[in-house]
Structures
1.
Amino acid sequence: MRPRRSVPVLAAAVLLLGAAAPGAPAEPAAEIGAAVTTERWTVTLLTGDRVDVHQRGDEVLTQVRPGVGREHIRFQRRRVGDRIHVVPSDALTLLGTGRLDPRLFDVSGLIDLGYDDARADLPLLVQGPEPRTALAGADSRVTRRLTSLDTTVVRQPKASTGELWRSLTQSQPSTDGARTLRAGVQRVWLDGRRQALLDQSVPQIGAPEAWAAGYTGQGTKVAVLDTGIDATHPDFAGQLGEVRNFSAAPDANDTVGHGTHVASTIAGTGAASTGQYTGVAPDATLLIGKVCESESCADSAILAGMDWAARAGADVVNLSLGGTDGPEIDPLEQAVNDLTAAYGTLFVIAAGNDGADETIGSPGSADAALTVGAVDKSDQLADFSSRGPRVGDT
């Protein structure tokens, strides 16, 4: 059994406006958790070190195999909630200063995302004005450059992650093996994945009254970053501006219906239902960015969609998606803040549906986000709705 998933499913947000040497036997196994079935995984870290995870009955054991030339490195193994983290000593300073994404050393999370060694590469986001020099010589494959966000999307072969670590970082003088990022590199994040889900009621939020007062979305551009669109649906005739695909899918067609549902809630004309299912802003123009192949969405695709929507002049960007927030600034939170400041774009984002205090999901946790929770039919806070304070605000 894989370590228990902890990525929450979010509701919609809709708004008008030290170890063994390489090749030697691994260090003694350490019990760090509980399990039900017997499974094995190997996870290659950004540093080139490998962690073997053996789940056997009620025990979860880990063995760390340092990368080539890293026999002297010590490893900190710990649990954070239900997560197993393995952190090399030479990455601790960069983690402490927020220059490295903690998810890069969250072994349980990497397995959960399918980023263990069953996958041949490690998906990364490298922020910096000119990271290509630091990426040279490590067989890194650059798949996208997000110029507005100074971010490069990288697919790093697992076999050469050690070379990438040495290329991205350098030793700090007079330190105990600590490393710093090279010039041109500001941060390194995991290219993680988010989840999507929604349920929203147009009449309940007072849309008919807004229409009567003349507020129908006329002249407003609303970008929907989601699972794509059924562009043939009658409710979207004349509503669609630009449609773009940023996902790994072959086109922007919506194969699961989520993005079509969100877009219809925002600006559907109601033509197919004789007006019964008219959206909140039926005169708005929709910009559609497919960032999710299904209900799972890569961070890099979401970032590309956010960058495009802001530069395309969207007044509002709807993100009915998200994932677990941490105390650090993650790439999507950073993008919400940066693009809002640069373009004046309003990012409307789902709060989440974890149903407890301090469970606001990311990127709804960004300072600049307008984050929307859920209410029940009586306009009371829904039991499942996430709510604040944000992680780290208490």
2.
Amino acid sequence: MPLSCTRLIKSILTLLMVFSYSTSYAGNNAAPLGQELGVTTLKQFQESIGVQTQLTETGTNKFSGGVMLEGNGEGLGVDGLTKILVIFNASNQLSGVVMTMSKSHFQETMNALSKKYKLVNKQVPFVGNKFAKYKQGNSVVMLDSPHMSFDMELRYLTNEFLASYTKTSADENAENKRNQASKF
């Protein structure tokens, strides 16, 4: 009996070690262009990506309180990329990357994302709006291709940024509805 308990304890400890290793690995966030969300700093991003493409500071993001950089993405080697918006939080950590691309690259982009991140939602009708959402650690990746547009957006966002965006947008919507209702 003592030998069985020892084996059982060793097995449980081994499983716990494997589980803790796998969850710490799975905790890594999405990393657009090799820059991990919530980890990469403004300085690191500028030293790495800023030397590959021209980025211009475009102000402070109202959802994150951090700096925004924008450019056309030329030099990054991403097929169909026409615009890139990079968002940092108030602590100068990468909070979001929004890439505007030609929608003709939807399927190949979705396939590449599916190999890298966990798919949580997908709507890909033959005709109509196409959408795919992925998760990785404390971040989400959303691929959004509106039917009546020539472009699609690939958004990499921290959960914190997405929550702030969702709450602020809902608050603004409610305020607009109250303002409209007061005019009648």
